[in-house]
Amino acid sequence: MAAATAGGRKGSWLTVALLAPTSAWFLILLVMPLAVVVIFSFGARAPMGGYAAAFTFEQYANLPSRFAAFKNTMTFAPLGTLLCLLIAYPLAYYLAVKVSPRWKLLLLVLVIVPFWTSLLIRTYAWIFILGGRGIPALLELIGIEGVRLINTPGAVMLGIVYGYLPLMVFPIFVSLEKLDKGLLEVSSDLGGTPLRTFLQVTLPLSMPGMATGCMLVFILLMGEFLIPAFLGGGKIFFIGNALVDLFLQSRNWPFGSAVAVTLVVIMLITVSLYMRLTMGKSTGRDESLM
Amino acid sequence: MSKNYKDNLPITAVKFMEEFRRYRKGSVTRRHFLGVTGLGTAMAVLGAAVPGLAPRAAHAYGELGDRLVFSTWPNYHNPVNLEEFTETTGVNIQVNAFGSNEEMLAKLQAGGAGWDVFVPTNYTITTYVELGLIQELDLSLIPNFDAASQNPVFAGPATVNGKVYAVPKNWGTTGFVVNTKQITSGPKSWKDFFDVTMGAGSGHTIVHDYQLTTIGAAMCAFGFSFNSIVPEELDKAEKLLIDAKPHLFAITSDYQPGMRSGDAWMSICWTGDGKQLNTDLPEMEYVVASDGGELWSDFYAIPSDAPHLTAAYAFINYMQDPYIQARDFAVHGYPTSDSRVDAMLPADTINDPILYPAKELMDGLEFGAAKTLTDPGRAEVMARFKSA
Amino acid sequence: MRLYAIAVYLFLYVPIGIIVLFSFNSGRHASDFVGLSVKWYGKAWSNPFVIDALTTSLIIALSVAVLSSLMGTSAALALQRVRGPMKVLFDGLIYVSIMIPGIVIGIATLIALVTAFDILNPLLASLWPEGVKPAKLSLGYASVIAAHTLFTMSLVIILVRARIAGMDRALIEASQDLYATPWRTFYQVTLPQIFPAVLAGFLLSFTFSFDDFIISFFVAGANTTLPVYVFSSIRRGITPEVNVIGSVVLFVSLTLLIIAQLLLRRRDRR
Questions:
Q1: What average pLDDT score do residues A230-258 get?
Q2: Which of A244, B63, B155, B240 could link B150 by a cystine bridge, Cβ 3.0 to 4.6 Å?
Q3: Structural domains in chain A, sorted by start
Q4: Nearest-5° angle of CA A97, CA A99, CA A102?
Q5: CB contacts, 8 Å: B94 with chain C
């Protein structure tokens, strides 16, 4: 690439300098804690909770006991991601393509402003809306009785979509925003219907953004625990809840570490598979999608 | 000046109790109560009139610093007490609330928590001592604590191997609260509790999200010990809990909102919450189960690495004052084991069945055991129940 | 399409409306609406812990956003030139730092830092001059900022890289062919193109840090951030004070936004 060769030796010094802080960060705050987690995962639970030095595989052998939590997560995460995508994409498209540049920033930030009021407060608002005094009470006014909305899988899904929407909107927006409107015009000039324009021009060009958004949402969903705890009434158990329980309630840190390591490995595999699949569909001569 | 401190109060004891009762019922605001009883300026007034009663003793500790980190339970304090401590000593109190002892233990075990005072329950103290997370108290720095007026049943767990590690705060029971408007069958035992959960109360019951009380309740329903860690009994309890799970409204220790909003009709409950609910909504009945339950007492303790030690002692001393304890009680409704406080309460409080259950019921209750807290078997059962 | 957008915004803001409504609740319990009153605003304002928690969260979130935007953008650009095993390594680290659940990184970072401090503090104390109280490493602002930045920096890298992926390389080549220095090329060609991604990264980083609960819960030491305070408040028997906090944050951010919008419009008109 011209950029790489033109820099030469000066370029590689620059590269190192630019990467140095990031590398230091990774080393101290990721590698070190990860090492702790991996070491713990081979240890044993101290009699009163916590970690006792040992080398054993019993924690990994015990993994199947949390299968239900894993199953729950693997059901809600893809579904939630898909719902988020379906709801976020039209909004991102509207903001990127249809809105005049004057209002773009404002409307975009308006998407994120609700998320500066704490997630906990917003969730409590949903608990009220979905609870006995909220929508069910309104429904009772028009004669529909006994509707239970809170502490159901539906409530959890609602909470997920509500909580992850901006994370999906932003990358798609970023991707669509640099869409050359000229391309759209050309496409319609050449006789393409709006649908065709969308499918063959817009959608492929927004793939990087979509992929980024889906990846982020999916990955973060795998670690989610507050939403199922609050909106599911503690009855719906995600892997995140299992981890919180293991670290804070049972205080079985070795087993918690084993679950965490397994979770991260599974996520790594899923993500690399996904990237390999979508790489083939990307446009442009870039080596990496992300 | 008379020797009896009651003679020098700005208000007579009888009138005080009347106002106190009205305040508890919510008929008057806190401001009115404080104004009428003179408690709002009590510290200044009393401090001048009665040496030894005021927390002026706090200044004898020397430099207190400007903050105190205090970890406690929800709905467990009168904000007025905390505000006044800050006013008289200049120490700001940062309050953290936890829903279970396991969480407190986890945070202290992980290290770096930076707490100065916390409120452990009786069955955790030996564990904290063994793990070296708690420090022995120097009782000479807590003159307001009077060991002689303490009920040894509740104060006992604070002493481990002859050393005192904590001073008592409140005691209580764990039973369940029932919305009698919705559930009319009058459940009286844990067996009834689970029967109603899977029957008339289906979809409207709450159990706690930590293992001691939830598994304990299931154990009692079978007639086993609340603290049992016998594997066969654990299996039966687990099966009952998993069968009941689809009928539950929620698994949480934050049950007041659900009960208040009418979504939940029955919940495992602690004394004080039962009292608060009953006071606000008379149809809420607090039941101490006939087949057993938990008796517990909470304490004030200081972690080994408390950064503000003098402030911690000053605070604990302040909170041990009988007046302060009575004022706390007025808001949270949990009884104390201090006979000096009992002497200040009106007769109908002493006879309140929620706060002081009948002897037959009390006899069936057990204190939580340390080994129950740390037993991995019980922890696993709870985890499997939650993920079922 | 516009209707759809309006519907989505409504969806986003209905709970917010509830929060604001309840902040004016005169009753004690946040779930029973009793009457209208502004007393909780007064109480929240005079509560030193609310102010303390809010300030802490703001300082931390701003630092995190700035740090991660700077480091993340530099790293994203630098990574364009990296190939082979190094690239795989970095990609792996970036993804793991995002994938690792908050609870795990929270506890692991806590233990790693506490252990490190236990080793480093005696060393520091021995190096310090006599009579002067030695510096002591402990959990606090720095540990939270550091832990949050790990995640948000990777977030920025991913966002900027996605943008770079679709960038027109021809422009950069043209700029270099015209003998522009690398800095100039960056400043006048690359940066404007990736700016939306950097901005998005900045905003998301701020949001993530400001709203984070679980990591702050573990590594903040004795400090309290706003979400930790709210969580504790909710546990203590949620009063409308909590809603006041949410409403105030909302009003302030909306005001800032409107001001920013007005400023931008004035600049456009010039």
A1: 84
A2: B155
A3: 75-253 (1.10.3720.10)
A4: 125
A5: 49, 52, 222, 224
What pLDDT was estimated at residue A219?
Answer: 84
Nearest to A51 by CA among C107, B229, C113, C213: C107
Q: Compute CA B247 distance to the chain's CA centroid, rounded to the nearest angstrom.
A: 28
CA distance A12 to C78: 9
What is the bridge-based pairing of β-strands B166-179 and B284-287?
antiparallel
Angle at which helices C141-165 and A207-222 cross, to 10°: 150
CATH number, domain B56-170+297-350, options 3.90.1150.10, 3.40.190.10, 3.30.565.10, 1.10.443.10: 3.40.190.10
Mean pLDDT of chain B: 82
Residues of chain C where predicted confidence (pLDDT) is lower than 70: 26-34, 46, 130-136, 179-180, 234-239, 264-270
CA atoms lying within 13 Å on the CB side of residue A63? 14
Cβ of C1 within 8 Å of Cβ of A90? The answer is yes
Residue A128, chain C, CB below 8 Å: the answer is: yes
Residue whose token pair is 């409704």: B333
User: Can you give the pTM of this predicted structure?
Assistant: 0.77
Average pLDDT over residues B115-137: 91
**B250 Cα distance to chain centroid:** 22
Report which of A261, A216, A240, A22 is spatially closest to residue C208, judged by C-alpha positions: A216
Same fold, B56-170+297-350 and B172-295+355-387: yes
> In this structure, how many other beta carbons lie within 10 angstroms of the beta carbon of residue B24?
19
- Chain B residues inside the 8 Å CB shell of A251: 102, 105-106, 109, 379
Query: Residue B298 in contact with residue B216, Cβ under 8 Å?
Result: no
pLDDT digits (tens, 9 = 90+) for A44-95: 877 766 777 778 787 888 788 788 888 888 888 899 999 999 999 988 888 8
> Is B210–A249 a contact, with Cβ atoms under 8 angstroms apart?
yes
Q: Does the ipTM exceed 0.90?
A: no
Query: Closest chain B residue to C110 measured between Cα atoms?
Result: B110
Maximum CA extent, chain C? 71
- 3-class SS of residue B132: coil
**Contacting residues for C122 by C-beta, under 8 A, at least 6 apart:** none
| Model confidence at A286: pLDDT above 50 | no
- Does residue A69 sit at the B interface (CB-CB below 8 Å)? yes
Residue B4: which pLDDT band, with cuts at 50, 70 and 90?
low
Type of residue at B110: A
pLDDT digits (tens, 9 = 90+) for B236-291: 999 999 999 989 988 888 788 888 888 889 999 988 888 888 888 899 999 898 88
Alpha-carbon distance values, B356 to A4, B109, B337 (Å): 80, 35, 11
Neighbours of B1 (CB within 10 A): 8
In this structure, are strands B365-367 and B205-207 parallel, antiparallel, or unpaired?
A: unpaired
Integer-rounded Cα radius of gyration of chain B: 21
Chain C contacts to B (CB-CB under 8 A)? 29-32, 48-49, 52, 107, 110-111, 113-114, 117, 138-139, 218-219, 221-222, 224, 228, 232-238
The domain spans of chain B are: 1-55, 56-170+297-350, 172-295+355-387
- Structural contact between residues A122 and C43, judged by C-beta atoms closer than 8 angstroms: no
Are residues A249 and B203, on separate chains, in Cβ contact within 8 Å?
no
Other CB atoms within a 10 A radius of the CB of residue A272 amount to: 14
- C contact chains, 3+ CB pairs < 8 A: A, B
Please check whether residue B133 touches C, CB under 8 A. Answer: no
Pick the CATH number of B172-295+355-387 from 3.40.190.10, 3.20.20.150, 3.30.230.10, 1.10.760.10: 3.40.190.10
**CB neighbourhood size of C105 (10 A):** 28
